[in-house]
Specification:
The protein is mostly beta strands. It folds into two domains: 128 residues, Pnp Oxidase, Chain A (Roll), CATH 2.30.110; 71 residues, no CATH class. Helices cover 3% and strands 49% of the residues. The chain contains one helix and 17 strands. It is elongated and about 100 Å long. The two termini are 13 Å apart.
Length: 250
């Protein structure tokens, strides 16, 4: 049987996350993700009755500890798109576009400046191919930034009102909504090993509601860690935190 003492414990493990799409509907589990820190803080507030009598003035007559909500803090060095979206206080959705040829628009090109190609709704068009202007030569009269969908006139003849044609490249990916949610809810489970005692644990938190605890660094000189802070939520028929010490047997 595993030792009762966990003195000098040194726990290691990688958490898995599943996101709640509603208050009670839980999605599928992620792969195990590398966590730098994962902290639970179960604390209480002390309420005191203070004596105002002359012989024991300001002494504590009674003390009561009232449990506070259990807080969680975690720092992740490896994330999936769902956690990136959570760090941006948003969500991730599938993004697809089919290829198309012969797209056209009349644009006013500016000499030496990038002008954005836009669709009929005024939305920027990205990832274009084979942009062309009648009687003008790409690389001499104009340049195209295909990824951003922008055109720059290089000569006076290339500037002004021009009819531009282009093809659309097909792509697939994900679109991140930003600042669309104030918080996000997960379920977390983690296999843990104490390297000091070789004891195994399994921890499950049925639900936590968190928000990003620091800015998401879009440009960063160092590795981007994602940090969350929030509260453990009590779910019906589940413990607040399920923490089991395991002894594997044949």
């Amino acid at each position: 049987m595993a030792a009762e003492s966990i003195t000098n414990s040194w726990l290691h493990g990688n958490p898995q996350f599943a996101v709640y799409s509603t208050e009670t509907v839980l999605g599928n589990w992620s792969d195990e993700i590398n966590a730098i820190d994962f902290n639970l803080n179960a604390s209480s507030d002390e309420k005191r009755e203070i004596s105002m009598a002359a012989d024991d003035n300001l002494q504590t007559k009674r003390s009561l500890f009232v449990q506070k909500p259990t807080e969680v803090e975690l720092s992740l060095s490896e994330v999936n798109r769902t956690l990136v979206a959570a760090a941006l206080h948003g969500s991730a959705s599938t993004l697809t576009r089919s290829s198309a040829t012969g797209e056209t628009a009349t644009m006013t090109l500016a000499l030496g400046e990038w002008v954005q190609i836009v669709d009929a709704n005024g939305k920027p068009v990205r990832h274009v191919d084979a942009a062309a202007i009648a009687d003008k030569v790409e690389g001499t009269d104009f340049l195209t930034n295909e990824e951003l969908g922008q055109i720059k006139a290089l000569t006076a003849g290339g500037a002004g009102s021009k009819t531009v044609t282009w093809n659309l490249k097909a792509y697939g990916g994900y679109k991140y909504g930003v600042a669309t949610q104030s918080a996000i809810s997960f379920s977390v489970q983690m296999r843990l090993k104490d390297h000091a005692t070789s004891v195994y644990y399994l921890m499950t938190i049925p639900k936590i509601t968190v928000q990003a605890s620091e800015a998401f660094k879009l440009i960063n000189m160092d590795r981007q860690d994602i940090k969350f802070k929030g509260t453990v939520i009590k779910m019906p028929n589940r413990d607040l935190v399920e923490y089991e010490q395991l002894t594997l047997t044949a």
